[in-house]
Predict the structure of Type III pantothenate kinase.
Amino acid sequence: MLLCIDTGNTNTVFSIWDGTDFIATWRTSTEVQRTADQYYVWLSTLMNFQKIEADITEVIISSTVPRVVFNLRVFANRYFDCRPLVVGKPECLLPIDARVDVGTIVGPDRLVNSAAAFDKFGGDLIVVDFGTATTFDVVAHDGAYVGGVISPGVNTSLESLHLKAAALPHVDVTMPDKVIGTNTVACMQSGVFWGYVGLIRETCNRIKDEYGRPMRVIATGGLAPLFNQGHKLFDEFDEFLTIHGLVVIHQYNKDQGNL
């Protein structure tokens, strides 16, 4: 079986693929100090608790945090006796190479999302990913990542506002009942919610105008359904798009005889 590991700046997702479906998915906080042994204790405990028996023989990793990759490599080698495939490294082949400025290093999460979206929905897409940053990835007609937009993430913006303005509390992200808030929390929630609805709509519209062809908007990340309430910002939503992309890239490397 294949263990897919998607490490973001805030959370890390582990998912087991049996060749047909994902049999289990878990999420933990991303910590650069976590050792290979700690990863295994955490993962094996959850597998035992859920009575999951999985013969993991292959591992693929996507990480936006370079410092965790070494320990994840050791984890794969020590406990599953395999050399993991790491997206973004020269030895990892992509179905379609990114077409960006020479010398540009594209984040592995954006490469994985592009591969996944093209596999599921075809080309001419905007992939909106709600993470620590809110990213907009443009996927061409042939599946190539051709650029995009990076904006501060929703929770990142809220946390920054809370830290920089002493009188403003930390608030949860939710759709407010009305735009005009009558207390501090309601004002902040309205500003974040409607501000991001406007950011998403305007950014997507400007990308479509510049791209010059009809495009569909695909969303992923836990906050996407919240921002789609009654506004139809997205044509499709896939919570596990990135994990699916890891399977796509791994299979492509197998098909090319690279594993």
Notes: The chain has seven helices and ten strands. The domain at 2-86 is CATH 3.30.420.40 (Nucleotidyltransferase; domain 5). Residues 70 and 86 are 10 Å apart (CA to CA). The chain has a mean pLDDT of 94.
